[in-house]
Amino acid sequence: MKTRYKTRDPEPMSRDPEPENAPPTPPPVDHALRMDVEPVRCQRCGGTAFNNCHATRPSRAADKMTRRKQCMRCGQWWVQYSEPTDKERAKFW
Fold first, then answer.
1. pTM for this structure?
2. pLDDT tens sequence across 66-78
3. 8 A C-beta contact, residue 65 and residue 74
């Protein structure tokens, strides 16, 4: 069945011409902050995955939390210091 209506514009480029002195479109802005962070590594095997074994207590020497973590690769225990969360700060300080 042949129709007499055309569904396409025969010259689509001439429909919306670009202005001659238009400024170039800026690239999209990415608002994400990207930081290169070196992951904490096990000193024995170099693994970066640790079991969080909930042995967390405030450090007496500084305003940090002492966290004991176990390496998932070799099983070695390590003590790491990090900033307290808001809940920990309210509980211990």
1. 0.46
2. 888 899 999 999 8
3. no
